[in-house]
């Protein structure tokens, strides 16, 4: 019987085959909190993209309530395509007032998903202020707006009270030129002076400061009023002077000193 070769015996595959080893399966445990945070982050990122970059909230309709100039219309038209949610109206009122000085107030309302409503309140002209060839409108607060030429009229087409500024004080549209008391006195004088005196107001003038208001009568003389004081006592003083010395008044009656009245 032939003997097996020792070399072949020790090279037999069974001798060199490794003993099978059992490997324990690795179990991966996912933290529920981590999963929740990941899902939340994905949803939050999607929401941010939806708000900032999608077309869902782009402004496509703008409703305007009020009267606007072409310059303001252009400013508003530039809002089309902007994001409704992220758009801030903080600086809009300032820009619109700079473009249209007659604007008193601006209210902006956002209507989801793509509508913007702009309500504009304009100033009501109470007085006209003439400086040189230019006439400005003044509201009840004494704020100057809307420069032009010619005769100024109100919304009903009635001529406005006009104050002539012979000293041409600097005027900035949209800023207060005179105090509210000045406006009130000018309006009251225009209403009551022709009733209390057999005279017609030819025009109103302002002196070197807005603390004095001058009534130029059709008789050719002037009456100087102090705009920092009540009108009624000044009119009472003028009545006394006029009743007793109306024929002697040739140039003016000065009512600016409390308790005194001077005429020439």
Structure notes:
This protein is of the alpha/beta class and 264 residues long. The protein has 2 domains: 61-122, Ubiquitin-like (UB roll) (Roll), CATH 3.10.20; 127-263, Rossmann fold (3-Layer(aba) Sandwich), CATH 3.40.50. The chain is 30% helix and 24% strand. The chain is built from 7 helices and 12 strands. The protein has helices at 6-10, 13-16, 32-52, 70-77, 92-99, 180-196, 231-245, and strands at residues 61-65, 103-111, 115-122, 127-131, 134-138, 144-148, 161-165, 201-206, 212-217, 222-226, 252-254, 262-263. The strands form 2 sheets. A 9-stranded mixed β-sheet has the order 6-5-4-7-8-9-10-11-12, with helices on one face. A 3-stranded mixed β-sheet has the order 1-3-2, with helices on one face. The longest helix is centred in the first third of the chain and has 21 residues, at 32-52. The protein is rod-shaped and about 135 Å long. It starts with 5 loop residues before the first helix and ends with a strand. The model has no long low-confidence stretch (mean pLDDT 85).
Layout of strands and helices, then pairs:
Elements: H1 6-10, H2 13-16, H3 32-52, E1 61-65, H4 70-77, H5 92-99, E2 103-111, E3 115-122, E4 127-131, E5 134-138, E6 144-148, E7 161-165, H6 180-196, E8 201-206, E9 212-217, E10 222-226, H7 231-245, E11 252-254, E12 262-263
Parallel strand pairs: 1-3, 4-7, 7-8, 10-11
Antiparallel strand pairs: 2-3, 4-5, 5-6, 8-9, 9-10, 11-12
């Amino acid at each position: 019987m032939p003997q097996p070769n020792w070399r072949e015996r020790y090279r037999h595959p069974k001798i060199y085959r490794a003993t099978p080893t059992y490997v324990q399966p690795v179990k991966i445990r996912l933290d529920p909190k981590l999963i929740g945070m990941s899902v939340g982050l994905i949803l939050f990122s999607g929401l941010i993209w939806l708000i900032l970059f999608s077309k869902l909230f782009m402004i496509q309709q703008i409703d305007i309530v009020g009267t606007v100039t072409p310059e303001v219309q252009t400013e508003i038209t530039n809002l089309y395509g902007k994001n409704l949610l992220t758009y801030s109206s903080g600086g809009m009122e300032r820009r619109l007032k700079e473009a249209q000085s007659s604007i008193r107030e601006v209210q902006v309302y956002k209507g989801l998903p793509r509508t913007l409503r702009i309500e504009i309140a304009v100033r009501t002209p109470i007085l006209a202020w003439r400086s040189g060839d230019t006439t400005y409108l003044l509201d009840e607060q004494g704020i100057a707006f809307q420069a032009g030429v010619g005769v100024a009229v109100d919304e009903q087409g009635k001529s406005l009270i006009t104050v002539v500024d012979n000293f041409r004080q600097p005027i900035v549209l949209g800023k207060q030129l005179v105090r509210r008391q000045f406006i009130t006195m000018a309006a009251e004088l225009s209403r009551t002076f022709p009733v209390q005196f057999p005279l017609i107001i030819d025009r109103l003038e302002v002196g070197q400061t807005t603390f004095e208001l001058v009534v130029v009568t059709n008789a050719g003389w002037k009456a100087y009023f102090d705009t920092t004081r009540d009108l009624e006592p000044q009119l009472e003083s003028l009545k006394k002077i006029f009743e007793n010395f109306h024929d002697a008044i040739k140039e003016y009656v000065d009512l600016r000193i409390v308790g005194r009245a001077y005429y020439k």
